[in-house]
Design brief:
Blueprint: E1 2-8, E2 11-16, E3 26-35, H1 38-46, E4 48-49, E5 52-53, E6 58-59, E7 63-71, E8 83-86, H2 96-99, E9 128-132, E10 136-138, H3 145-148, H4 151-164, E11 171-175, H5 179-190, E12 195-200, H6 203-211, E13 216-219, E14 237-242, H7 247-256, E15 257-265, H8 276-282, E16 285-288, H9 295-304, E17 314-319, H10 323-330, E18 338-342
Parallel strand pairs: 11-12, 11-14, 12-13, 14-15, 15-16, 17-18
Antiparallel strand pairs: 1-2, 1-6, 3-7, 3-9, 3-18, 4-5, 7-8, 8-10
Helix pairs in contact: 4-5, 4-9
Length: about 350
């Protein structure tokens, strides 16, 4: 089978590997769609992020869906031909945090395409994947596989929503309009938010946010005094999802959040400096959100309703042999929101 392997920054290769043997409680999946995530881009562009570096060849990818081609007697509930979204979250189930039901903090997590441990955890950008049946969630037949591959980033968002608490009737600010920020728009709308405002520095992605239900978009590069309209009476927003990892976004958010509001940090970045006076004086709760686990089933259930407007988020799909082109486009936020690898496309033509 063909696989997409990162060796170092800007050294992405299509290689051939042997398919894995099927064990009990597992299924074999012909991967159909694989979304390029921000972490995949960090490996491709920089060879890693922070202290996490690629130290050996590693298959990338963890936003995947596909069709089951083989089952075992123990993998009940699935049949050949079923379309599934595959959760990359594979906790050990026995460590301190698994026993405390803090699954995303598993001390022995095996998360597809991660260079955190050594040896690295190989990813799922491959034509043939053997996965535990427990990782697989049925996608409705009428839902395209490319939408099923949105289950993983949507799970990240739903975990963040859980950290935020009730959103019904709340005014929500989202900073950063990448795929996670855009999915926050959809999820906040579905949760009954009264108003959703999103900021970024690129008009193209903000236009997509408008299409999927944002009440207002703000290009903060062009409207540098934007916080003034939301700062009266100590602030305006009840909940903020920070999805950019940018200090200026975080600082601006503290200016426009109301007393006893909640700020959920979704975006990864470097060290930042914040106004402790604002946090204390407004009694703002700052909460991190890391990965997900049980939210994956919730994400698939939402996608299966067919009510989420995911189509505007999908910029293009490339055949596996054009993976480098796909990664280059995915790294250009002026032209792309979400780019996927189409593992079923043998024509050699990207679909945009």
């Amino acid at each position: 089978m063909k696989v997409i392997v990162i060796h170092a920054a800007k050294d992405l290769r299509i290689e051939n590997r042997s398919a894995e043997d099927l064990q009990a409680d597992q299924v074999r999946i012909q991967i159909e769609a694989g979304g390029i995530c921000g972490s995949d881009l960090h490996y491709y562009q920089h060879g890693g992020f922070g202290q996490i570096r690629v130290r050996e060849p590693m298959i990338l990818g963890h936003e995947i869906s596909g069709r089951i081609t083989e089952v075992t007697a123990a993998s009940s509930g699935f049949s050949i031909g079923d379309t599934v979204a595959v959760s990359p979250s594979r906790p050990c189930g026995n460590c301190l945090y698994c026993n405390e039901n803090k699954i995303s903090h598993c001390l022995n997590m095996r998360f597809y395409g991660s260079a955190m441990p050594m040896p690295h955890i190989q990813g799922a950008f491959r034509e043939d994947l053997v996965a535990d049946a427990a990782q697989c969630h049925l996608i409705s037949p009428e839902i395209p596989s490319e939408f099923g591959a949105f289950a993983e980033p949507l799970s990240v968002v739903l975990h963040g929503m859980k950290r935020a608490g009730e959103l019904a009737g709340k005014r929500v600010l989202i900073t950063g309009c990448g795929p996670i920020g855009a999915l926050c728009v959809l999820a906040a709308r579905a949760a009954g938010a009264a108003e959703v405002v999103i900021t970024d520095v690129i008009d193209n992605v903000l236009n997509i946010a408008t299409q999927i239900g944002a009440d207002k978009t703000i290009n903060v590069a062009k409207e540098q005094g934007w916080t003034a309209q939301y700062s009266d009476n100590k602030g305006y927003f009840d909940v903020m999802f920070e999805a950019s990892g940018n200090q200026s976004a975080l600082t601006a958010g503290l200016d426009v959040l109301r007393p006893r509001s909640v700020l959920v940090q979704l975006g990864l970045g470097g060290d930042v400096t914040i106004s402790q006076n604002s946090v204390v004086a407004k009694e703002i709760d700052i909460r991190g959100a890391f990965r997900f686990h049980e939210e994956f089933a919730d994400a698939v259930a939402m996608i299966n309703t067919g009510t989420l407007n995911l189509a505007p988020l999908l910029t293009a799909r490339f055949p596996i042999d054009q993976a480098v082109d796909a990664f280059e486009l995915a790294g250009d936020r002026h032209r792309a929101m979400k780019v996927q690898i189409d593992f079923t496309n043998q024509s050699g033509q990207a679909k945009q």
